[in-house]
Automatic annotation (TrEMBL):
This is DUF3592 domain-containing protein. InterPro entries: DUF3592. Pfam families: DUF3592. Keywords: Membrane, Transmembrane, Transmembrane helix. Residues 56-124 form the DUF3592 domain. It comes from Flavimobilis marinus. The chain crosses the membrane at residues 20-40, 134-157.
Length: 167
């Protein structure tokens, strides 16, 4: 009886603890980055003004300034209060948020607003005053996730090549 020799592949046992720790750590980093992207997107969405169906020009009646201390520099955003005429009735309202962009508006000057025709006190400055690029943090976070995912995939593929190569 003749025995044929066969190539025997080494059995792949359990993954080494270091590999498991690295994989779990990579998953945690990825989850944290995903949460950060969601938080930035949520903050950007909450920072945008509501847009209603009707538009008009109002008169700025007052500017309310808030102070947020940040070390030596203070962040001093402004919020306009304004009045507009609707069917002969003066409607007074204020901006639902504050921004440094509003600080350049003059009391007595015009401001373009949008309002809800069924509830005119629900109004906000026109979106043209809100020029913040809310998509930039989101795009950076998404791009970071792509780079992170590709890096993890390359690391896993490279490690499996090294482990499967003949020695």
């Amino acid at each position: 009886m003749v025995l044929k020799s066969a190539r025997v592949r080494p059995a792949r046992g359990r993954p080494r603890p270091a590999r498991i720790v690295a994989f779990v750590l990579a998953l945690l980093v990825y989850a944290a980055a995903l949460f950060a992207a969601w938080a930035m997107s949520f903050a950007a969405a909450m920072g945008t003004l509501p847009v209603y169906s009707a538009t008009t020009t109002a008169t700025v009646t007052a500017m309310v300034s808030e102070v947020f201390p940040y070390g030596d520099d203070d962040y001093r955003p402004c919020g306009p209060r304004y009045t507009f005429m609707l069917d002969g009735v003066a409607v007074s309202a204020s901006s639902p948020n504050v921004s440094e962009r509003y600080c350049s508006l003059a009391v007595g000057g015009p401001i373009d607003i949008t309002y809800d025709p069924s509830e005119p006190t629900s109004s906000a400055p026109s979106p043209r005053y809100d020029r913040s690029p809310a998509w930039v943090p989101t795009a950076l976070a998404v791009g970071g996730h792509v780079v992170l995912a590709l890096g993890i995939a390359a690391l896993v593929a490279g490690r499996s090549k090294v482990e499967n190569s003949p020695r």
